[in-house]
């Protein structure tokens, strides 16, 4: 292991996850690489079908087998490959060293167990505390995530709580055992803006207090800009751009990242006239184009883009981009060719 | 919750009225003159007229209904033509309790075996165990009661001699009829549990449980089954009612003197008050059981209570 | 855009009864929309923004009488929609159309695209039968769906395309006003931008008036002329786009704007984080409904309900807040 990588808590290398359906194989995650530094936040951003959520489920090996299967790759957590661990070893890691928050606080909590019971469950499993101690700890956790009258709330069922409160309970569950890495899959997508602001603030504060590393999966570029240190932009199962947050928002390189940033209607900026758009739509996962998956929608695509998939390569300023434009090859190519369907 | 129970009991009133009306009309609208049949084959017209008068058949239909209800509420369902005893004592002296006992044991067996099979199937989707259990369940569903009963007698009583062939009295008498009765129910519960369980195991909170590091076994029983059981409870309640109906045939096959036999015998003997009374008692029992199921469903699923 | 009011909503209330007790009597009401008045001028895009439960969608549904209003008047071209009979209202729907958030749920899965559009035309009898097929092709062309896809079923389209079909259906009867209820909320960013541009295009082309209901202030800023901010069934602020985004007056509007995560990474603004949740609309707080969460609330806010009043400034702006009123006085 090289010296520069030593501070990273998680390193994903060449991860490939597929779904095997009646209609054929869907390569949901198709060669993904990234790493998360200790105490830092990585954002994975992309639209639906980009494979961002599947990437996060693959890390904890939570896919529904045998339909979904990790075919290849390494997930190195603190120097050890999670994909080589036994089922039992994985159980000891989940919720303890690495935990997860999901998108829908409505459906992600068990409707027939009280909030306190659901928090206490992971405490009892991983910290081997008795029932009473675990309960006390879960009330403490509810207090920590800013739920008023935690003793009372612990005895309530999820449906008695508002969406924001439920997401706080989810956070309490995930942080109950002091994990080193927290994976948040669209943690605020289902919430209203003012509640989203509360939850993001809370996650940030707890992350600082506990020194947790964070991985946020989202489609909301605003959330990425507010929360993350590094960003991986995904499209059709591949990382197309991987850079620190400032670069991505001030000097985006990949045409998809540029298009995505321009498509967002901004609330703090006047836009006169039409929004800049990305034409067309995401290709069907059963029938991905050869070459670069974005080529059919890319305004600058040349012959080579349609023919050959570019590598995720480092540019002069240290960012990684999967695009022919930033290679020596580009100048040798002819004019842009549009191949719309 | 208390309010709900009160409301639920109030809601049974229109159902009860419907049930009594249906039973009453059924007996009065079927072809054939009740008075003629009851007076006997050799009766002369005057005797038939007398019988009609006695039975109140000359009154307008609505009046007949009201007096039927009025008497029924006071526990008077008339007298049996065949035995001349009160219908209520014919029913409640022993027969009712035998049938209820049989139905209860049948239900318990159905629940135990149905749940077990359902859970095994759901957790091993598409495995050999799953496929064979579901094939057996399909058999159980499609086999007619009388045939199953006869087969069980042939196998376990006649060939193996483990259980008595027919009759009632000891627990050994109860086993085969209860199995006969419970098989279809077990099959339905097994299929229901399987599909409900599969649906629940697909829910987001199951993924949350796995993400917490909960073991497979605990995820299935603590998180899965608890939620999967909610719809199954309703089926169990309905099943109990179906069992009462099934008892008619099963009791005949095993020569058990329960309500089922009583209905058959009474129909054969054109014993109108008896048939009417027995059907009414069964219907009321069915309504009571279903009300109880609804209430327990509510207790189990606290979520509805608030909305 | 003209100054002529196309739609005028007056003192609209939408209360939904809550049943309870042994006999299912009405024990209380959900006060989803509570005394709301506003106008929409011809050719204008007015947006209603707010968080879930503020009553924005309920207002939209009440205007089309998808749910009959509890009280109040809705004047469309001077005619009170509330007083119309059911069949009269059905005819009126030719002029008032709605596009929903989930295009899939609002399209019949067993009808092809052309059947869906033809049915809408048939109900309103706007176009003679023989011209319909041509018109359908034209319409689909306008919303960006090729003529070769005309006989396909909704499930064969992507989410963005389905929303285009929903738009085509609304357009098929030549409406004057289209209510867009979270019409682009379910779409991915890149598709959302396409649909927003399309809506703007169509407005120019067909002189449409939009009532745009959304929770996304970025989208709202992009598409609207005027914006109504709602909180717990009440309007807290109405203003033209410029005034609202450059100088929000109501503390709720200010909090709402500052809560949105911004992609502007170089200029970080101060955040106003509201505490707590939105109170229940069954038993809303007395006085100003926002006072329980307002960082600037004072005594008067809990006692007296503020009225919507104009604020002097460069543009058009009305606020319901005691603070602005007192600073003026």
From TrEMBL, chain A:
Q: Where does the ABC transporter domain start and stop, copy by copy?
A: 10-261
Subcellular locations according to the entry:
Cell membrane
- Keyword Nucleotide-binding tagged: yes
Primary location:
membrane
Q: Which PROSITE patterns match?
A: ABC_TRANSPORTER_1, ABC_TRANSPORTER_2
Looking up CDD domains in the UniProt record yields: ABC_NikE_OppD_transporters
Q: How does it sit in the membrane?
A: Peripheral membrane protein
Q: Any keyword Cell membrane?
A: yes
Could you tell me one molecular function GO term of this UniProt entry?
A: ATP binding
Give UniProt keywords alphabetically: ATP-binding, Cell membrane, Membrane, Nucleotide-binding, Transport
In the record, the note on similarity to other proteins reads:
Belongs to the ABC transporter superfamily.
Q: Which PANTHER family match?
A: DIPEPTIDE TRANSPORT ATP-BINDING PROTEIN DPPD (PTHR43297:SF2), OLIGOPEPTIDE TRANSPORT ATP-BINDING PROTEIN APPD (PTHR43297)
Protein name per UniProt: Oligopeptide/dipeptide ABC transporter ATP-binding protein
Q: Which organism is it from?
A: Cytobacillus purgationiresistens
UniProtKB/TrEMBL annotation, chain C:
PROSITE patterns assigned: ABC_TRANSPORTER_1, ABC_TRANSPORTER_2
Every copy of the ABC transporter domain together lies at 7-257
Q: Supply the alphabetized keyword list.
A: ATP-binding, Nucleotide-binding, Transport
Q: Name one GO molecular function term.
A: ATP binding
Could you tell me which Gene3D superfamilies the record lists for this protein? P-loop containing nucleotide triphosphate hydrolases (3.40.50.300)
> InterPro entries under this entry?
AAA+_ATPase, ABC_transp_ATP-bind, ABC_transporter-like_ATP-bd, ABC_transporter-like_CS, Oligopep_ABC_C, P-loop_NTPase
Domain of life the protein comes from: Bacteria
Q: Which Pfam families match?
A: ABC_tran (PF00005), oligo_HPY (PF08352)
Keyword match Flavoprotein: no
CDD domains recorded: ABC_NikE_OppD_transporters
Q: Which family does it belong to?
A: Belongs to the ABC transporter superfamily.
Identification of the protein by name: Peptide/nickel transport system ATP-binding protein/oligopeptide transport system ATP-binding protein
